[in-house]
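QA checklist item 7 of 12: single-chain prediction sanity check.
[x] sequence parsed
[x] length recorded as 334
[x] structure emitted
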Amino acid sequence: VDLNVNALTSWPSITPFEGIKLGWEAFAQDVADFEVPAIASDGSTTTDEFEAPDILTYIAPYTYVTTETKAKAIAPVAKDVKSEQESAIAVSLNFFSTQNKTEAAVRSGADITLSGDLAIEALAEGLFVHVSNLPLKNPLGSAKTEDSVGGTAVVARTASDVIAVIEDGVSINATGDVNVEAVNDIVTITQTFASASAKGSSINAAVSASIIEAETTARVDDTAIITADEVTISADDTSILWSMAGSLSKGQEKGVGASGAVNFVTREISAGIGRSGEPLSSVDGTTTITANTLTIDAKNQGLEVAATIAGSFVRGKTDDEEASNDEATMTPTA
């Protein structure tokens, strides 16, 4: 008989590959369960219709968007007014913060005897995608204003505390293995973009700031007594942080594009025997583990990526445009 103590924090988004896999598994199961229908007295039959999963749905970026912001500035000009819109200003801000604690524990004083394995596993998983002004067509269209200013910023924070623990004073006697495992597997993606075209000056800026605060702990506390074949204590952080920012400007006089992507990452991964805190030690208590194999493993396998792009395009006015502008500003005199 095995005993599993599991704690799971799972955000609703799934990876594209997992979604495709689950969709095809369900489709295959429907086909496998299909039975030829009986023919009714009137000769009619009813059959079930099966549809293969739509792969495009799983790989479309907007399928996994957590938050999205857009900003666009337009000031309509009356048809009988010859002058263009003087200026356009658009600014967007996206702030997202989430915090979770996932804990699987065998509490102090527990006495467990079993003929099998004991698994204490805590897992936090999720996919967060934050988008601001994602361009779906040419971001540098025709200029409809004299001057334009665009700005966008995304700040995304994810805090995840994952703990798997056998507390002090616990007695465990298992004929199989004892596994204490904590895993942090959070994926955060931020994308910001700003762009505009103007007949005069065009200034655009995009900033992406992503924050991860992750603590992953697997521990056997003081005064615990464990007897098993193999004992494994492991903590693993596989979280991913990906930040992207882009800015493009097009103007006939001035074009300024600026972008920045910043990642702030704090990771703490610990696996061991003893009291919680720094360092993991067994100073005041006596922990007894009797096993053929004891493995203690702490891994930091996280990934952080920051990418930016910025560009500007300036095209001087042609002679015809200069003449047109001169004529537009002339004041006729008698």
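[x] summary fact logged: The mean pLDDT is 78.
[ ] second reviewer sign-off
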